[in-house]
Here is the input.
Amino acid sequence: MQTLESFKSIFKDRIFKIPDYQRGYAWQARQLKDFWEDIVNLPQDKSHYTGLLSLKEISKKGYSGDNWTAERWLLEDRGFKPFHIVDGQQRLTTFVIFINEILNLIKAIPENDGKSDTEIYIGTFSLKQIKEEYLVVQKPPQFLVNTYKFSYETDNPSFKYLKHHILGEPNAGSIMETFYTLNLENAKQFFYENLENHYRLNGVSGIEMLFRKVTQNLMFNLHEIPDDFDVFVAFETMNNRGKKLSNLELLKNRLIYLTTLYDEDELEQDERFILRKDINDAWKEVYFQLGRNKKHPLPDDDFLVAHWIMYFQYTRQKGDDYIRFLLEEKFTPQNVYKTTEVKSDSITSISEVRDLEEDDELEENTVVDSNINRPKLSPKEISDYVKNLRSAAVHWYNSFNPLNNSSLTNEESLWLDRLNRIGIAYFRPLVVASYIRTDITTGSRIKLFKEIERFIFIAFRVGRAFSTFRNSEYYKLTKQLQNGDISIDEICLSLKTRIEDWLSPETSFDYQPFKSYIGRHYKNGGGFYSWNGLHYFLYEYETEKVMKNGNQKIDWTLFVKSEKDKVSLEHIYPQTPSNDYWKNAFINETEEQKNLLTGSIGNILALSTSKNSSLQNDSFPDKKSPLGRFHKGYTDGSHSEIEIAAYPEWNADAILKQGLVLLEFMERRWNIKFADVESKKDMLFLNFLPKD
Here is the structure.
């Protein structure tokens, strides 16, 4: 049955709940802007088609549980009807937030100060009437129960957040925040700011006009889904429109759907309830962890791919093979309907024991062969999967946010931070798997992190291997590690062995691929300055000095932040050396040699604070101790700057000397070895300089 109805009509005598298979609030800036513009630009005498709203009426048995306690008085005493929202919850949530912000704005107008909700009007409707029609009704006569016209059926952090942080119910207590609650807060702020601006331009009458438009002129194609229709299939199909469901959201719906398909003899009602709760709890935890860092929420599909690699067999196929496996091969209705035959062994069963005084022997029944049919996908497989997914989400968050993390030791935080800074590549699932295995010690994990970091630096930052180098091998080892089929020591040995590709039989480092890579950057005017591992390398050099001397002076976030006309990596001998000091210091070098010296790594310095690029041409004495002291000089900068300030002059010999110091650090830090000093000079592109 389909009818065209306004919001005002839709909310009359209906209560809406978002069922547990639904996602949370997913609308972001683009969708909010479209909603706002639709309302503002809609002529007051016109209707606007808003889309399809699909509802499934809940039977009396369906709302008899604890999840409907606060609503039952409206259903039984006042004849309201309860509905699950199958499609359209994003728009209904937006509508509820929009109405609430209109009420907040009108109530905040100075002329309404001190007035109650029954004394303030929007048009001919009091605020109390509007709240009760669209938002919340209190049960008389004690008025202790708040019944929300729109809510979530399960214990979802989004509803608690909606009630307390959006709709203003007091005494919230602690609330779990997720990516979805962040979207709710953003929508509230978006509408309040735009309504304030609209009020300044158009006054109260303008706000009243928006209220009439949104409640009366926005029209839904209302569709009630019949009882014999598969609501889960409808949900998947309908949500391919608008802001599409993520694969993680689709998977949750699929798993809950599967719990409804098992026969009673395979999954009893209590077990079905527990399994469904496990699924909901897992997704609640996943979305809490993914949205835990509000400034940097983690993409849900990235997490799902990583967990698939950990939990199932990785393949080298491209694209969406992981979700095709999960939705089309593993967690399918066919695997529930499709049964496997389990042939029991011949069993000799013993009949009830008779009175031994009458007969000292036990009577044996005849031998019976029986076949037991079980679903190909068992409920336990679903339970194990979602529990593992839930556990992995915690460690997934920790791997991205190791600093000041009380769940990690100081050394774990240090090495996880290093992995994030260097670019963890395809090793994050392996890192997470090391935490899922509770029998792995902290010391073993640190050993693994060190070997991964060394592998990444040598293979990718220096060896110039392709980003997919050996990824299939380590994805497979990830699954083996989680299953307990391989040890940390075995994985570390594998990582060490693969690095031998860059070491000669004499264990000296084969730097030629790296030199060729830097040589290409020299042709483009960059040299070592364009190396994608330079920030990490120089930061680690600075870190070694911090370990010895204390007093960290470089903040990684600011160090790698790009600022217009400012630098955090400086050419000591500048690229445009117009200062007389530089002309005299490099008077004996050719233009080609000057170019090689400028771009060599010994001439590049990590600064404690970024400074204007215009200062790079200052003389070496002025860089060490600037005239006028308008900015920091090397003498009071980073540990690396202080080291450079100790040089009496800055010339070709100084650049070579500092370059050799840095390569000695590289040998020490990543356990590699160059054949001799001449090899190092060759890698620095400075073999034209004398030996001493």
The chain has 28 helices and 14 strands. Residues 275 and 383 are 6 Å apart (CA to CA). The longest helix spans residues 179-217.
